[in-house]
Amino acid sequence: MIDLKETPIFNKADFTKEMDVGSCDRWKLLYSMLKGSYTESDTNYGNYESDKYEFNPNLHIQYELITDTETFKIEHYCAFVNEIKTRIIPIQENSSLTSK
Predict the structure, then answer these.
(1) Over pLDDT 70: what percentage of the chain?
(2) pTM of the model
(3) d(Cα 23, Cα 91) in Å, to the nearest integer?
(4) In which region does residue 46 sit, left (phi positive, over 0), alpha (psi from -120 to 50) or beta (all else)?
Protein backbone atom coordinates (compact mmCIF):
# COMPACT_ATOMS: atom_id res chain seq x y z
CA MET A 1 0.00 0.00 0.00
CA ILE A 2 1.18 3.50 -0.82
CA ASP A 3 0.43 6.45 1.45
CA LEU A 4 -0.02 9.54 -0.73
CA LYS A 5 -0.45 11.63 2.44
CA GLU A 6 -3.75 13.00 1.18
CA THR A 7 -6.27 14.50 3.57
CA PRO A 8 -9.85 13.19 3.29
CA ILE A 9 -12.59 15.70 2.49
CA PHE A 10 -15.64 15.60 4.74
CA ASN A 11 -18.22 17.75 2.99
CA LYS A 12 -21.52 16.39 4.34
CA ALA A 13 -22.35 14.95 0.92
CA ASP A 14 -25.75 13.38 0.38
CA PHE A 15 -24.73 9.82 -0.52
CA THR A 16 -28.32 8.87 -1.36
CA LYS A 17 -27.85 10.88 -4.58
CA GLU A 18 -24.66 9.14 -5.66
CA MET A 19 -24.24 8.03 -9.25
CA ASP A 20 -22.35 4.97 -10.52
CA VAL A 21 -19.54 5.93 -12.88
CA GLY A 22 -18.12 3.29 -15.21
CA SER A 23 -15.40 4.40 -17.59
CA CYS A 24 -15.54 2.50 -20.88
CA ASP A 25 -12.98 1.95 -23.65
CA ARG A 26 -14.21 -0.95 -25.83
CA TRP A 27 -17.38 -2.08 -27.59
CA LYS A 28 -18.07 -5.36 -25.77
CA LEU A 29 -17.74 -3.65 -22.41
CA LEU A 30 -20.03 -0.80 -23.53
CA TYR A 31 -22.75 -3.24 -24.60
CA SER A 32 -22.55 -5.01 -21.22
CA MET A 33 -22.56 -1.74 -19.29
CA LEU A 34 -25.59 -0.43 -21.15
CA LYS A 35 -27.44 -3.53 -19.94
CA GLY A 36 -26.40 -2.74 -16.34
CA SER A 37 -23.31 -4.90 -15.80
CA TYR A 38 -20.04 -3.56 -14.38
CA THR A 39 -17.93 -5.99 -16.44
CA GLU A 40 -17.90 -7.88 -19.74
CA SER A 41 -18.39 -11.20 -17.95
CA ASP A 42 -21.74 -12.48 -16.69
CA THR A 43 -22.06 -11.54 -13.02
CA ASN A 44 -24.82 -10.40 -10.72
CA TYR A 45 -22.90 -7.21 -9.99
CA GLY A 46 -24.25 -4.10 -11.64
CA ASN A 47 -26.74 -1.26 -11.61
CA TYR A 48 -29.90 -2.69 -13.15
CA GLU A 49 -32.31 0.10 -12.10
CA SER A 50 -32.67 1.40 -15.67
CA ASP A 51 -31.41 0.32 -19.09
CA LYS A 52 -32.62 3.44 -20.90
CA TYR A 53 -29.77 5.85 -21.65
CA GLU A 54 -29.31 9.26 -23.20
CA PHE A 55 -26.10 10.10 -25.05
CA ASN A 56 -24.35 13.31 -23.98
CA PRO A 57 -21.74 14.38 -26.56
CA ASN A 58 -20.81 17.57 -24.65
CA LEU A 59 -19.21 16.02 -21.57
CA HIS A 60 -15.48 16.33 -20.87
CA ILE A 61 -13.81 14.55 -17.93
CA GLN A 62 -10.07 14.56 -17.33
CA TYR A 63 -8.23 12.97 -14.41
CA GLU A 64 -4.94 11.41 -13.38
CA LEU A 65 -4.54 7.93 -11.95
CA ILE A 66 -1.30 7.70 -9.98
CA THR A 67 0.36 4.42 -8.98
CA ASP A 68 3.68 3.91 -7.26
CA THR A 69 5.50 3.83 -10.61
CA GLU A 70 3.23 5.44 -13.21
CA THR A 71 0.84 8.30 -13.83
CA PHE A 72 -2.02 7.82 -16.29
CA LYS A 73 -3.79 10.85 -17.77
CA ILE A 74 -7.25 9.72 -18.77
CA GLU A 75 -9.75 11.79 -20.76
CA HIS A 76 -13.37 11.23 -21.71
CA TYR A 77 -15.28 13.30 -24.25
CA CYS A 78 -18.85 11.99 -24.14
CA ALA A 79 -21.03 9.72 -22.01
CA PHE A 80 -24.20 7.73 -21.68
CA VAL A 81 -26.43 8.68 -18.71
CA ASN A 82 -29.37 6.54 -17.68
CA GLU A 83 -32.77 8.20 -17.55
CA ILE A 84 -33.06 8.10 -13.75
CA LYS A 85 -29.57 9.58 -13.27
CA THR A 86 -28.15 6.67 -11.25
CA ARG A 87 -25.47 5.72 -13.76
CA ILE A 88 -23.06 7.43 -16.14
CA ILE A 89 -20.77 5.67 -18.62
CA PRO A 90 -18.10 8.08 -19.88
CA ILE A 91 -16.27 7.03 -23.06
CA GLN A 92 -12.48 7.15 -22.99
CA GLU A 93 -10.78 9.26 -25.61
CA ASN A 94 -8.22 7.39 -27.78
CA SER A 95 -10.02 4.05 -27.33
CA SER A 96 -11.55 1.66 -29.85
CA LEU A 97 -14.88 3.44 -29.24
CA THR A 98 -13.58 6.76 -30.52
CA SER A 99 -11.21 5.65 -33.27
CA LYS A 100 -12.09 6.82 -36.74
Answers:
(1) 99
(2) 0.76
(3) 6
(4) left
